[in-house]
Amino acid sequence: MFAALFKLFGCSEPSKKSGLSKKEKNQMDKNIDSFMNRTKYKILTNQIIDTTSDDDLIQTVFDNLSDNVPKDYTKEYETVISWNKSRQAIFMIWWLEAEVNNGGYNQYYFNSSGQYYKLLPEALKFVGAFKFSDLTEKSNQIYEKEYGKITRHHDGTLEGFSKSYKDNPLNDQDDKFYALYKEEDLQQIQIDYIRRHKKDFIDQ
Length: 204
Prior knowledge:
The protein has a single domain (49-200), classed as Up-down Bundle (A middle domain of Talin 1). It is built from twelve helices and no strands. It has helices spanning 2-8, 22-36, 46-51, 54-66, 76-80, 85-110, 120-127, 130-145, 147-151, 158-163, 171-180, 186-196.
C-alpha cells in the first residue's frame, strides 16, 4: 500500500527527511484519505477513460487491471501475460515505479513484482520509455550477475532483507532511476500511451 502511495503522489525518490512539517503531514493525510477512498472501476469504458484526469488515469487503469488478477498468487503470472501488450506494460511499469520509488530495485526484485523483471525492458520500450528500458535492462544484468551477493541475506525475515541493502550493487541503479525522471517523464509517457491506445484498455 505505501509503495503505491509513494508512486501515486509523485515521490520520485524516497524521502530522506527525519520528519514532516505539520503542513506536509496534513497534505500527506489528505493524499492518503483520497487514495483510500478513490473510485475503482471493475469495467472500463471509453467514457471513463476520456473523463478521467491525467493525474488519475494510470491509477484508474491499474486498479481495473488489478481487479482482474486472481487472488491465487500462483496464477497471477499466467493471467498477466495473457493480456494484450498494452495492459501488461502499464501493470508491470506501475509495480516497477511503486517498488523502486519506495525501496529501490532491491525491493522490486525481492517482492512478487520481480517475477516480471525479464519482461520489463520490452514493456518500457513498448510504451516509449526507452531510457528507463535501458536502465532496467542494465539493472537486470546486475541482478543476474550478482544474484548471490544481492540475495545472501534473504532468509525470509525483515532483518535479513534490511541487511541486503548494505553494499548492494543495485544501489547505484536506484540513484540513476530517480534522476532519470528529469530526462524522461515516465508518468506522462504512460498517460499519452493510454490516451492513444485506449481501445486496448476498455472492457466494453
